[in-house]
């Protein structure tokens, strides 16, 4: 019951009342430091009160709980060294990481905890010491891997075509080799080494990705943009295309160019994932993801309707015409592709002035140009501009969340020997087996004194002003005899408040 009440207090809107009641309940807890402590009992979602405060973005409760966990090591003048307990914060030994919970929640207030002590210092320590070097090395290794795969695709086994053309539009001059003919020369053996590296890399990608999908869940793993959800879909699809290409090569099945071309596009697009390691490029990947899965997905439904309608009309108009004079609409698939190009203004309106074009073509193309080019494209630009403006206000915040997600990902996947635990063991200071982070704080006492003086001046000014207003109301019937103008009132107030302020300064000195 006490643990349930603690979870309810974390969700209370009245933060001050919740903190006082939280302390009151813990005062009656018999197992304050043991494993049976109320603070360490999770709810049905596996969240302790501390983790729940982070997920809900309750910064007041989070700071209150951190103040209870800290230990002042020493203090000398304005310098203070504090040890912060990393229990439930450090993701090194946590199945459900506190940092991962913060960046995966949909509440923006939760990401503000990343700027608070000691989370900010812990993330900075992990990222600068281990995260950034490993991430840069991984980016370089992936680019070299993609270069190897691209060269294998460019020099894939082909041979001249021996059969006759089936139609005048048939333009094929090379065909794919059979498996027995693909690995004969020294160049073929060199390409085989690159293909083996490509296949091994695809298998490693699947081995690394599948456990995380089972642990987190497909909806959460692929749906969070900060966690790199779309890029996880891209890299898994890329690995599957590589395996499909390998099967088609081993079985001598024609048409391997289809999965191979998909794999090339997806593999190189996944390079954008590594832009999150740089503050200048990281926020732009978030913008691209939000535009693609927000604005562009909604726009594509409208675009598909327009293209289907006008492509069908263009095909019907040119169905009776000679395709040699205007071949952009000679069949229905080609009409769809041509209309798509016209929609994005990639090509100009097809026309042949040596022959008479149908009159309806001019009418339909006029309507298409007005609807597609002038209306819908400008609508898409306006939608993307609005998304860019909204994301730009969260640029630094989103980049920090990306850094945290990347740090947690690397920490989970790298061996323990390459990523030691951050912080200091409490046994060195007689604090048990818990791990702590040492943070050095500089407190300027003069700043706090000046804040007190400023508040004193403000309070005195406010009191004098209220007294002046009361005098004005009392003497409102005798304005002819005595006129307390606003100027005289302000001078009197300034003189009194200034005198009061100098008295405070002299007394403190």
UniProtKB/TrEMBL annotation:
Q: Which GO terms describe its cellular component?
A: plasma membrane
Please give, as recorded in its UniProt entry, the membrane topology of this protein. Multi-pass membrane protein
Q: Where's it found, cell-wise?
A: Membrane
Q: List the Pfam families.
A: Ion_trans (PF00520)
This protein is called what?
TRPV5 protein
* Any one GO molecular function term: metal ion binding
Tell me yes or no: is Cell membrane among this UniProt entry's keywords.
no
Q: Name one GO biological process term.
A: calcium ion import across plasma membrane
Asked whether the UniProt record includes Transmembrane among its keywords, one would answer yes
Could you tell me which PANTHER family the record lists for this protein?
TRANSIENT RECEPTOR POTENTIAL CATION CHANNEL SUBFAMILY V MEMBER 6 (PTHR10582:SF25), TRANSIENT RECEPTOR POTENTIAL ION CHANNEL PROTEIN (PTHR10582)
Q: Which UniProt keywords apply?
A: ANK repeat, Membrane, Metal-binding, Phosphoprotein, Repeat, Transmembrane, Transmembrane helix
The cross-references to NCBIfam families, in alphabetical order and at most eight, read: trp (TIGR00870)
Where does the record place the Ion transport domain?
Answer: 135-393
Under the heading Gene3D superfamilies, the entry gives:
Ankyrin repeat-containing domain
Provide the transmembrane region boundaries.
134-158, 192-210, 231-251, 257-275, 296-318, 359-381
InterPro entries to which the protein is assigned, alphabetical: Ankyrin_rpt-contain_sf, Ion_trans_dom, TRPV, TRPV5, TRPV5/TRPV6
């Amino acid at each position: 019951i006490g643990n349930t009440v603690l979870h309810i207090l974390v969700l209370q809107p009245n933060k001050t009342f919740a903190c006082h009641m939280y302390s009151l309940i813990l005062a009656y807890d018999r197992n304050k430091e043991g494993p049976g402590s109320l603070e360490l009992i999770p709810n049905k979602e596996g969240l302790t009160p501390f983790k729940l405060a982070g997920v809900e973005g309750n910064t007041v409760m989070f700071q209150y709980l951190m103040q209870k966990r800290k230990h002042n090591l020493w203090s000398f003048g304005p310098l203070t060294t504090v040890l912060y307990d990393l229990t439930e914060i450090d993701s090194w030994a946590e199945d459900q990481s506190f940092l991962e919970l913060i960046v995966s929640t949909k509440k923006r207030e939760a990401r503000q905890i990343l700027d608070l002590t000691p989370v900010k210092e812990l993330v900075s320590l992990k990222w600068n010491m281990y995260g950034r070097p490993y991430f840069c090395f991984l980016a370089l290794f992936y680019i070299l891997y993609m270069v190897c795969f691209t060269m294998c695709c460019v020099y894939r086994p082909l041979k001249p075509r021996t059969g006759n053309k089936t139609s005048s539009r048939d333009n094929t001059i090379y065909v794919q080799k059979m498996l027995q003919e693909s690995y004969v020369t020294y160049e073929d053996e060199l390409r085989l080494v690159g293909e083996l590296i490509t296949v091994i890399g695809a298998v490693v990608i699947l081995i690394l990705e599948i456990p995380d999908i089972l642990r987190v869940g497909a909806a959460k793993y692929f749906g969070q943009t900060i966690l790199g959800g779309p890029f996880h879909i891209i890299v898994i699809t890329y690995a599957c295309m590589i395996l499909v290409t390998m099967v088609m090569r081993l079985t001598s099945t024609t048409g391997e160019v289809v999965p191979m071309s998909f794999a090339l596009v997806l593999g190189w697009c996944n390079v954008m994932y590594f832009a999150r390691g740089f503050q200048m490029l990281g926020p732009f990947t978030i913008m691209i993801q939000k535009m693609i899965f927000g604005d562009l997905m909604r726009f594509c439904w409208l675009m598909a309707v327009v293209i289907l309608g006008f492509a069908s009309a263009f095909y019907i108009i040119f169905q009776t015409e000679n395709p040699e004079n205007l071949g952009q609409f000679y069949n229905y698939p080609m009409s769809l592709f041509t209309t798509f190009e016209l929609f994005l203004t990639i090509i100009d309106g097809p026309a042949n002035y040596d022959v008479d074009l149908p009159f309806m073509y001019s009418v339909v193309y006029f309507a298409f140009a007005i609807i597609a080019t002038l209306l819908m494209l400008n609508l898409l630009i306006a939608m993307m501009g609005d998304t860019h403006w909204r994301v730009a206000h969260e640029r630094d915040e989103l980049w920090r969340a990306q850094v945290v997600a990347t740090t947690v990902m690397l920490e989970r996947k790298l061996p323990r020997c390459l990523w030691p635990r951050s912080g200091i063991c409490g046994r060195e200071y007689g604090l048990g087996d818990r791990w702590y982070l040492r943070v050095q704080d500089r407190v300027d006492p003069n700043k706090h004194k000046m804040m007190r003086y400023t508040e004193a001046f403000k309070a005195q000014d406010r009191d004098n002003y209220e007294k002046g207003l009361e005098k004005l109301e009392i003497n409102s019937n005798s304005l002819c005899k005595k006129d307390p103008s606003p100027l005289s009132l302000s001078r009197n107030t300034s003189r009194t408040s200034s005198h009061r302020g100098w008295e405070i300064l002299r007394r403190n000195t």
